[in-house]
Amino acid sequence: MQSLLQVALTLALILASQTAPAQTFPSKPVRIIVAFPPGGGTDIVARIMSPKMSENLGQQVVIDNRAGAAGIVGTELAAKSPADGYTMFMGTLGNLSVNPLLYSKLPFDVGRDFAPLTLVVSVTFVLYVHPSLPVKTVKDLIALAKSRPGQINYASSGNGGAPHLAAELLNSMAGVKMIHVPYKGSGPSFIDLLGGQVPLTFDSMVQGLQYVKSGRLRAVAVLGPKRSPVLPDVPTVGETLPGYEVVNWFGMVVPAATPRDIVTRLNTETVKVLRMPDIRERLMANGAEPVGSTPDEFGAFMKSESAKWARVIKEANIRAE
């Protein structure tokens, strides 16, 4: 009888230890690593969400900006963080699906080192130009670039990011040669764009809409398949260059060995925030459409995006510089 009681007690302790993480999580602040400086699109979205996530989780959710090497620095830090649920990573199309295609040697493996949490937002991208550039349409830009090959610079958030891909796709499809000037994030790139040091960029509406509204930048075109309700009078690039389309996205992942029950908890609370009317309104006003998905759905989406962009990168001969 005593041995049976001991077995029962042992089983009870094992079950308790398995459920304990979800019951006690979180017991300290949670961080969201952003692989770009403050002021970029991922940073803005994370900061819009974090106060409500803090309320939901009952612990402070802090943003940890770790910029450098086209997002590789922050991605590596996230991949090698403890798999305890206290580190989430707000990744992008570039971080999670494109960099592994451009760089032969990375200090992490996205498929091996991360567990998907949720697709956060789909982001409208815009072709922005400084008012000093005599360009009001995509047709104008292509004509100017053809008349001045190798003389027009464009800014990007870094090698392999969506702004870089967007510009190189236009170079390839339009038969022009604009020169890439990579920065350590969208925030720094916009400082030089606003100052006129570089004349144009392809970046998120989250990042640049405020400057269009203030007249400091001109929105020439949106990069998605249809016009944006936020900028209804701005045409798509595809209206001039059929077949051109770039849509960026931000998604949340955690270190791969994070316990499944904690992944489920973080997914539930993140999706709950994305469905809050005030958060949806703020994100939509910035050109970021809230999504919210299951971990499995986001994992399948990342794989499909990698396959899609592998074809584009090969066809456009896009390289990590």
Strand content: 15-25%
Average of the residue pLDDT scores: 91
* Major pleated sheet: 6 strands, mixed
Shape: globular
- Contiguous uncertain segments of 5+ residues: none
- The total of beta strands comes to 11
Task: State the distance separating the first and last CA atoms.
Answer: 71 Å
Keywords:
single chain, 321 residues, alpha/beta, six-stranded mixed β-sheet, 12 helices
Describe this structure in words.
47% of the residues lie in helices and 19% in strands. With 321 residues, it is α/β, with parallel strands linked by helices. The strands form three sheets. The protein has a six-stranded mixed β-sheet, sandwiched between helices. A three-stranded antiparallel β-sheet has the order 8-5-9. Helix 2 packs across helix 10. It is globular, with a radius of gyration of 22 Å.
Give the SSE layout:
Blueprint: H1 2-24, E1 30-34, H2 41-57, E2 61-65, H3 72-79, E3 87-92, H4 93-102, H5 110-113, E4 114-123, E5 125-129, H6 138-147, E6 153-156, H7 162-174, E7 179-182, H8 186-195, E8 200-204, H9 205-213, E9 218-222, E10 248-255, H10 260-274, H11 277-285, E11 288-290, H12 295-316
Give a concise summary.
47% of the residues lie in helices and 19% in strands. With 321 residues, the chain is an alpha/beta fold.
